[in-house]
Design goal:
Mean pLDDT: 87
Strand content: 25-35%
Number of strands: 7
Shape: globular
Distance between the termini: 31 Å
Strand order of the largest sheet: 3-2-1-4-5-7-6
Number of helices: 6
């Protein structure tokens, strides 16, 4: 694990205890976005950066969900949520930039509001592409790049600035099937698939 990734892991471990407080406000802004994101998930599903498991309640019956997260502390919350919901999901530690799964192992990959915090977005999407079977679906929701001054200027100065989720997915070889701005335009919902 490189230094940047280790730093992000430490940040999420520290924030895990108070994450749920901010997440309630986030849910008020997002509305039904999580349900909309997870509804098309089918078969063997990998959720990358599962966090505290806020998507677990939204997967359709029959989906076999495996969730990975960089932070052991966030995973503790996800396990408690899965237990409270009666959801049978496998939750384990893992790095989105280096997934420990075989090529083509999943039918669907889901990533919600996490791509923007992963140090190397492109590497993470390359990994998501690799573990999907040909024709498999990527379901992604994330914050968009800033387009207004002074936020655009501040973002451009970062080592790894935010980018449009659909643009990074397309660069990683996905075919974008649909995209939609939600949550007052600050978030983009993307459905894509891996080609044959």
């Amino acid at each position: 694990m490189d230094e940047r990734t280790e730093r992000v892991r430490g940040d999420w471990n520290r924030m895990s205890g108070r994450y749920e407080q901010g997440a309630r406000l986030q849910e008020a802004v997002l509305g039904g976005v999580r349900a909309r994101l997870c509804a098309p998930a089918a078969g063997r599903v990998l959720e990358v950066a599962v966090g505290t498991g806020r998507n677990l309640a939204h997967y359709p019956a029959g989906a076999e969900v495996i969730g990975v997260d960089l932070s052991p502390a966030m995973l503790e919350h996800a396990r408690a949520r899965a237990s409270a919901l009666g959801v049978d999901a496998v939750l384990r530690e893992g790095d989105a930039q280096e997934l420990s799964f075989a090529d083509g192992e999943f039918d669907t990959v889901v990533c919600a509001l996490a791509l923007c915090t992963i140090p190397d977005q492109r590497r993470a999407l390359d990994e998501m592409h690799r573990v999907l079977r040909p024709g498999g679906r990527l379901l992604l929701v994330d914050h968009v790049d800033y387009t207004r001054w002074p936020f655009r200027l501040r973002e451009a100065r970062k080592e790894h600035p935010r980018r449009l989720p659909r643009a990074v997915a397309a660069e990683a070889g996905f075919t974008v099937d649909s995209h939609d701005r939600v949550a007052l335009g600050f978030v983009e919902l993307v459905a894509a698939h891996r080609g044959p």
